[in-house]
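Teaching assistant here, posting this on the class forum so everyone can see the example we discussed in section. The complex has two components, and the goal was to see what a joint structure prediction looks like when all of them are supplied at once.
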Amino acid sequence: MKYGYFPGCSLTSSAKEYDISLRKVIDKLGISFDEINDWSCCGATSAHVTNHKLSTALAMRNIMLAEQQGLDNIIAPCAACYNRLIISQNEIGKHSGIRKETEDLLSVKFKKDIKVFNILELFLKSGINKIIENRKRELSELKAACYYGCLLVRPAAITKFDDAEEPESMEKIIEATGAGAVDWNYKTECCGAAHSIARRDIVVDLSKKILDDAITHGANVMVVACPMCHTNLDMRQRAMKRKYPDHKEFPVLYLTELIGLSLGMDEKELGIDLHYTNFKYADTLLNNSAKG
Amino acid sequence: MKIGVFICHCGENISSTVDCPRVADVCRGYSGVEYSVDYKYMCSDPGQNLIKNAIHKYDLDAIVVGSCSPHMHERTFRNAAVSAGINPFMVEIANLREHCSWVHDDIEASSRKAIELMRMAIEKVKRDKPLTKIKVPVTKRVLVIGGGIAGIQAALDTANAGYEVVLVEKEPSIGGHMSQLSETFPTLDCSQCILTPRMVEVHQHPKIKLMTYSEVERVEGFIGNFKVTIKKKARHINEDKCSGCGMCITKCPIKKKAYNSFEEDLAFRPAVYVPFPQAIPNIPVIDETVCTYYKTGKCGMCLKVCDREAIDFAQKDTMHVADVGAIIVATGFKLYNIEKKSGDSKYKGYGEYGYGKYRDVIDGLQFERIASASGPTSGEIKRPSDGRVPKKIAFIQCVGSRDDSKGISYCSKICCMYTAKQAMLYRHKVHDGEAYIFYMDIRAGGKMYEEFVRRAIEEDKVKYIRGRVSRIYEEDGKYIVKGEDTLAGMPVEIDADMVVLATAMIPQDGAESLARTIGIPYDKYGFFNEAHPKLRPVESTTAGVFLAGACQSPKDIPESVSMASAAASKAIILFANDTLEREPVVAKVNEDICAGCFYCMKVCPYGAVEVKDVKDMNGIVYKEVAYINQGVCQGCGTCTATCLSKSIELAGFNNEEIFAEIAAL
């Protein structure tokens, strides 16, 4: 199956390493990818809180482009993009008025039912066995806390994927890489999301709680699949340190980076060096053996 | 044939949009109509007298009444006709109210429609034939399915009226969920203390045949004449020999292999066991799935210690047949499984509450056992995980109930009350303990119920928080309950030592397959449907089958008991006559032209169609035809419409009559 790829704005900027590692991993696993030509904003955050019509049209424009490009599905690695695309699609499916309005705005008729997948679905559908086959590096020393955040599996009625309150699909992928996954409490708690800009104090408190719970439950790395979550959990650790002086730097990886590591790629290749927190697999091993 | 036509104004209900005098005038002109009149209230005494007098005066053979729906007054007008000497099935009703005046506003058009409706009814009545009621014999014995409080009450009431009862219970003892409860709301009297005398009464009643550890396998026949096959599961104990001494139970070496389901899995039981000390009958059961003898052929400890030689490893399931005239279904409820995966594909679980993962997150029935003097902690409130006394308990209502996202929309009705009771019991037993209750609404409708909840709040200082809980997780031996206080508009977090979930009530396992066995309808959740939600709440739509208790919808004890008594009285009413009279509107097969395709058998919702052999003069079967059991047929007409060779006719609605109506249009 060939996947249509919708990177979204974050993956070309603040989450560049998510894009880099995704492309590397996909290539290695032999999953074929077609970037949507001339893709645009998904209609997130500012659009969907100010203008409903605009945000639906923005999201549907990308789906329309995929359709015109002859694709059957779209993979949207950013949780917010994924959310915008499936919600808009659901709305035009349910309300003929909104459908007509959007079609008029875009001067098209939607014909195909394009399936939108998040990153977890991509690996669950086409990746698990390939990851196991291509595993090069032993990762059993890694104990990952899988963090889903708010959008990846919600709203349950529309995503119809995993259990929105107690998801476990990311753990399945982590297990395929040979790393361990810890059982912890905060996998769907709020990281503070877009408050990162205007109310950094809120984000620092919320994200700190998430990291602390992961550490309490024995994790030595956190794995995320959302650029916003990564920004808050990774970049804001400096602010955390300022507010909570005994905060210890804790590595936060994108799911694709961890998969890349298991496939034998190194940190630099995967863009892990672009993070604010330091992560060297060798160091983690050393730390663990020093502790043990 | 002389026909009388009577047009009712129904006050203004019909006459405001139908020109009643005009309808009566037009009808007077139709062939066969001898007399036609309109009147303000035809159902009133003067209206009925008008009909009766007209029948006498004009020597009428049949009447047509243009009035409200036949559901309302068909019986009234038929009775009036009968008292004037006309067969009740020579009365036709044209529905001029629901079908005409109420739904139209143009007087001219609705008057014309009323005339059409009348003409159809007149054409039909010309072809109607007098019918007589069918008489069927009655077996005056009742089958009660389920030995919980509803089944016990229904059995006792029927037996005390002098009729024989067969009470079937699938568990080894009767008593049901009520036997598990600690104390009951709103009086706080001990559940077992009020229940066990009833259980003993059932056991000793000469009219009640008690069949525990048994299940209904097959139901054949019809009202007054059911034939029921009951499977008695092998107890591996000879009931006639066993004295109930309990030696086998004490000596059984299997101690920790099987969870005790009566204790809601909070304790273990041996391989040979009685569910609880007051069990009726007090005869143990050997659980083949854990007993060493069935695995290895060795052990046999119970065999050695039983001095009455009652142990019978070779005992097999046996089948028993009972003839009964009525069936009372009282199969009750179970609690919705709240683990991550609900185990039932219909519903989603509550992984976020950690039930099954944290031992101190328990459900309502488990708390009942913990609070019960006969329970695993002898009534002391202790945590299942470490036996410590919890100093803070969070109770969460509506877990499953009223939650569309998990698959159940209904209110389980009893949880508001039992949660208040459990919090109260906890506060009575642990004086320095704190009880928090998360609720959506308090539904305390019932005698002394609201007062009871107020008492929990005001006297026992139970803290009520209006809001849902989003997550429960463990932190340093405490359970962090994260929720919302919607009245304060604030998120709340409670570090509880124990959490009690008031989970939804759902129908007992196997309810749907039992419903299919008996032939009664059920709703999408598996609760059995009543014949009418207001006026026939304890009858199923199948004649002779009655419902009692929580198998119909969530119910508390008083409601279950009232419903059981009502169901018993329905059975007793049925038994008041030696024969039953049934409406003669039933289908009949013309055996000469029936091709024996049995499509009718496939479509009949009541299982009324049977195979009948047709024999020649020498007694040799030369064809099979459909035969409709008149006792079972409900006159729905489905077979008539399905029959390819048009060889089935429904009395009172035969093809000739229906076609005449259509042709009159």
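For the discussion questions: The mean pLDDT of chain A is 91. Chain A has 15 helices and eight strands. Think about how each of these relates to the inputs above.
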